[in-house]
From TrEMBL:
Annotated keywords: Methyltransferase, S-adenosyl-L-methionine, Transferase
Active site: 426 (nucleophile)
Upper lineage: Eukaryota, Viridiplantae, Streptophyta, Embryophyta, Tracheophyta
Family to which this protein belongs: Belongs to the class I-like SAM-binding methyltransferase superfamily. RNA M5U methyltransferase family.
A single GO BP: methylation
Binding residues for S-adenosyl-L-methionine: 254, 281, 304, 352
Designated name of the protein: Methyltransferase small domain-containing protein
Organism: Rhynchospora tenuis
Superkingdom as given in the UniProt entry: Eukaryota
PROSITE patterns named in the record: SAM_MT_RNA_M5U (PS51687)
Keyword Phosphoprotein in record: no
MF (Gene Ontology): RNA methyltransferase activity
């Protein structure tokens, strides 16, 4: 979950996008000298005060791109590419803080380095119903946060029109234990107000559904553990990476779904057909299920620490073709506890860690796996023996699949280890650190790299990096030449 200090930015000129400016042709690597391009300006009235965006010019080319390009070139990737995508009205998910007073509510992001809300005005529902915004100092108030997520999934419309006709799932974070609390009457009033004015019976149907989340703690955690569906459709669908993906309001969802879809399509090219795939930090399993469906994988194993993602995974799994010959499982556990246990038996491992990067224990396990086959047997023997003799009940329970689909495919029991590592990163600095650890001692080498402009107007980019086990081909040739010269 995001914390208030890292709330996502939102340009709420309209709840649902209706028309985007003309697209601008984007150059790929190598990066050229920067020139201000007025056709790629933010043009947001909140830019000076809001912390959501760091620059208002050159949305198509964040300054961090120069460092990214040089880093990959220095690591042997000469054909690095950058995909800028849609620059305006791309956001499909936002979390906004609610503060102020019933007469003058403040709904928006925090000013950088503070908990002062930068207002995105004209919230009629709060004023009309006299809803009390949350006060952090006293702990009193009713509405703490609002999450809005847009679904563009509508099979009755042509594909090109679905984005323009998206509907919004609204989640109201309420300052009470549950719907039976004394102040819950206003929660239902606000829900009814939204549904009446923007539901299917209104003149402008914008809202897909309304949910309530109940949160009473004084921490920076946005969501509590209790949810209740109030209005509209219960299931929220999006078509991503060739599959129908279910995303509950409690599950992590990408804010830029179009850019995420582009990344998934690119990622699929690096998964050989018939692979056994391990998807770590899998969330609701969108990445793992998409490669299962499009790459005819023998097996896909998803590992995720957030138990709330299970329901979405099960719903998405139910939409896959019944003829799919792939053993699929989802495990609710922390992969950093037993990384070697999870890595064993997979040809390809996909990691999509949080901004802080991979857990050190996982980096260490990947380094061990990268050793030559003879050394692997020696180095891993003691670790695997300990894993097989494990008796702690919570570890044994975690190994059991929470969700599993068997297949008639023949799954070999021989010991295999990943030869391909696909790393998706939203934290550039942590990725560089992990990359240096992985390529050190020639355990892994970078083969391909791409970046995606998930958050135009910021210095945050999404990286898709493909590692192969062992040294690069050019390095192997150098070693052979050195041996010949010494002979």
């Amino acid at each position: 979950m995001a914390t208030p200090s890292t709330l996502v930015t939102a340009r709420l000129t309209a709840v649902v996008p209706r028309r985007a400016p003309p697209r601008v042709a984007i150059p790929t690597s190598p990066v050229e000298p920067y020139k201000n391009n007025l056709n790629c300006s933010l043009n947001c009235p909140h830019f000076q005060s809001c912390s959501g965006c760091s620059h208002e010019l050159n949305l198509d080319r964040p300054h961090v791109l120069q460092d990214v390009t040089k880093f990959f070139e220095d690591n042997g990737v000469k054909d690095f590419s950058f995909h800028s995508g849609k620059l305006w009205e791309w956001r499909c998910r936002a979390k906004l803080a609610v503060r102020g007073t019933p007469d003058e509510p403040l709904v928006g992001l925090y000013q950088e380095g503070t908990h002062n809300v930068i207002d995105i005005p004209l919230c009629k529902g709060i004023v009309e119903l006299n809803i009390r915004p949350y006060d952090e100092d006293s702990g009193f108030g009713e509405l703490r946060y609002v999450q809005m997520a847009v679904t563009t999934y509508n099979t009755s419309l042509p594909l090109a029109e679905r984005y323009l006709e998206g509907k919004v799932q609204v989640s109201l974070v309420w300052n009470s234990r549950d719907e039976r609390s004394p102040n819950s009457g206003k929660l239902f009033e606000l829900s009814n107000f939204l549904w009446k004015n923007a539901g299917p019976g209104s003149s402008m149907h914008l809202i897909h559904s309304v949910w309530a989340n109940f949160q009473t703690t004084s921490t920076n955690v946005i969501f509590g553990h209790k949810w209740r569906h109030l209005e509209g459709e219960r299931d929220f669908w999006e078509h991503l990476g060739g599959i129908d993906a279910s995303i509950d309001p409690s599950s992590f969802g990408q804010a830029n779904t179009q850019a995420f879809n582009s990344l998934l399509r690119k990622l699929q090219n690096y998964v050989p057909k018939g692979s056994s795939v391990l998807d770590l930090y899998s969330g609701a399993g969108v990445i793992g299920l998409s490669v299962a469906a499009t790459r005819k994988c023998r097996s896909v194993k998803c590992v995720e620490i957030n138990k709330e993602s299970k329901a979405s995974f099960e719903k998405s799994l139910s939409r896959l073709p019944k003829t799919l010959e792939c053993a699929i499982s989802w495990h609710n556990t922390d992969a950093s506890l037993e990384p070697l246990h999870w890595l064993e038996g997979s040809d390809v491992v996909i990691v999509d860690p949080p901004r802080k990067g991979l857990h050190p224990s996982l980096v260490d396990a990947l380094q061990k796996v990268s050793l030559s086959s003879k050394k692997v047997a020696t180095k891993l023997e003691s670790s695997m023996t300990r894993a097989k003799n494990e008796k702690r009940p919570w570890i044994l329970r975690a190994r059991e699949a929470s969700v599993q689909v068997e297949t008639g495919a023949n799954l070999d029991s021989e010991q295999i280890w990943p030869s391909t590592l696909i790393y998706i990163s939203c934290g550039w600095d942590s990725f560089k650190e992990d990359c240096r650890s992985l390529v050190g001692k020639n355990g892994w080498h970078l083969e391909k790299a791409h970046a995606f402009n998930f958050f135009p107007g910021t210095q945050s980019i999404e990286v898709l990096a493909i590692f192969k086990r062992g040294p690069s081909v050019s390095l192997k040739k150098k070693k052979k030449k050195t041996k010949k010269n010494h002979a």
